[in-house]
């Protein structure tokens, strides 16, 4: 196995792990395989922080604890009063089913991959679904055994255009949730892995603008435009006053 293939295999394992953690499904076996994946990455963790997070996660994914993890997921992503949004559209524009969703759908349309509507109830820009999509692209690239395959291009586009710009805000919101325990450690792994992916794709971490919550369906970009206009009007009033 070449060095390129070894890296692809390792990346595929991480994306499979994160997809199993963040894709919502009502199947009772939703966390099957997570323990094996954690033991696999434990052999060669990304760094000491990840090693410690893995050590904390492994005992929590014993069979008798899985129902508690399912409840934690629901508490974080579904339960009022302040569930964490898990779509990239939300972090892009402040509401669901935005341009990020359209971009992912357009990307999928170029491939042979189709969403199983019976299993995946969320939109295509759902964080877990996009992580699973990355796994599929890398797995297909390994099957093709080509370094410049279409699947490599698809994966690069998905990471650079959808995942990279907004994943940090998702990680921060999830980690900060009062119910986050298992998912706080999962975010430690995800955050460090995303940094690895940025190196892999030679894609810098985005400079996040000051966060402004969307209100009444107004997107962050629209909010910023309004703020710029407000400041311009205030400046005009100052000039008139000086005259």
From TrEMBL:
The keyword Phosphoprotein does not apply. Pfam families: Nitrate_red_del (PF02613). The keyword Ribosomal protein does not apply. Keywords: Chaperone. It comes from the Bacteria. InterPro entries: DMSO/NO3_reduct_chaperone, TorD-like_sf, TorD/DmsD_chaperones. PANTHER family: CHAPERONE PROTEIN YCDY, DIMETHYL SULFOXIDE REDUCTASE CHAPERONE-RELATED. This is Formate dehydrogenase-specific chaperone. It comes from Campylobacter suis.
